[in-house]
Amino acid sequence: MIPFVEVRIDGFFANASQSMDFPPHLHSEIEIVLASEGSFCLQIDDQEYEISAGQGIIVFPNKIHSLFSRQEGRGLMLIFPHHLVPQIGFDWEHTEPVCPVVDNLPPEVLYARDRMLDYLPTQQITRRLHALLHMLVAFMVHNMKLQPSSRSGTPDALYRTMIFLSQHYCEELTLKTVAKAAGISESYLSHLFGAHMKTDFRHYLNVLRLNKAGILLVETDLPMEDVATQCGFKCLRSFDRAFQRAHNCTPSAYRRQRYEMP
After folding, report:
1. Whose CB among 37, 138, 216, 218 lies 3.0–4.6 Å from 74's, allowing a Cys bridge?
2. End of a domain among 148, 171, 198?
3. In this structure, is residue 2 part of a structural domain?
4. What is the helix (H) or strand (E) element at residue 33, kind and residue range?
């Protein structure tokens, strides 16, 4: 599955899923995953965590993380900017939990989770959703032990690269131009992707572009040619080929399937 977390229309995303498999990525928003059935595994920087039903995890901003399932599960994923929860009492960007996992979610969190599921999927933050989000976050972080944030050995150059890509992935990019923007050599950039992201530059760039394509296919009626060009693909043929490799269906079929979903 292609990750959606790099591209959101208004900074808020909430969705329920039976399969959560996203390769390593980074964004400036807070991410919360709450398991209701089965289990999910997350890797944050170089540390792996597993959550099961009744547990949750918070990924603080600008942390490289990935998500995968060893068994089928069901859960709620929330992605939102920290300005939506401004009165929690600490600086999200310079703080992190000693352990991001919350065991035995309190009743207030379970209530908020279940009520949020009634509104999904959505990228619109209504007053009721905002209130539920604030309650959910407040009770999740209440007993968390916090510490100043660190990067756990992840090179600064990789963070600079990922932030640059998240802002410019729809433009015409090469390994050379991205390496120059990050202030490193092409060979070192290739090494960083292989060592820390377990993929290569071109594949990661396509992941970002196809993520946006998936959103545009569902949220707009743009012609396929416009979707392709707005996502950074030079021609419709290369877009079709990349999309089919990722989704095992054409962009047109993907759009049609989503429209037919109840």
Report:
1. 37
2. 148
3. no
4. strand 30-37
Residue 208 resides in a domain: yes
Whether 160 and 142 map to the same domain: the answer is no
- pLDDT tens series, the chain, 262 aa: 333 334 344 567 787 776 666 777 777 789 999 998 888 999 888 789 999 999 999 999 888 888 887 777 788 989 898 888 877 778 888 889 999 999 989 999 999 999 988 877 666 778 888 999 999 999 999 878 999 987 655 678 888 898 888 889 999 999 999 999 999 999 999 999 988 777 899 998 998 899 889 888 988 899 999 999 999 999 999 999 999 998 899 999 999 887 665 5
Q: Are 141 and 186 in the same domain?
A: no
The H or E element that residue 219 is part of is helix 201-219
CATH code: domain of residue 116: 2.60.120.810
- Token pair listed for 108: 């207030």
Could you give the C-alpha distances from 152 to 6, 33, 46, 81, 149, in angstroms and in order? 22, 21, 7, 23, 9
* pTM for this entry: 0.72
Q: Is residue 3 part of a domain?
A: no
Q: Does 163 lie in the same domain as 143? A: no
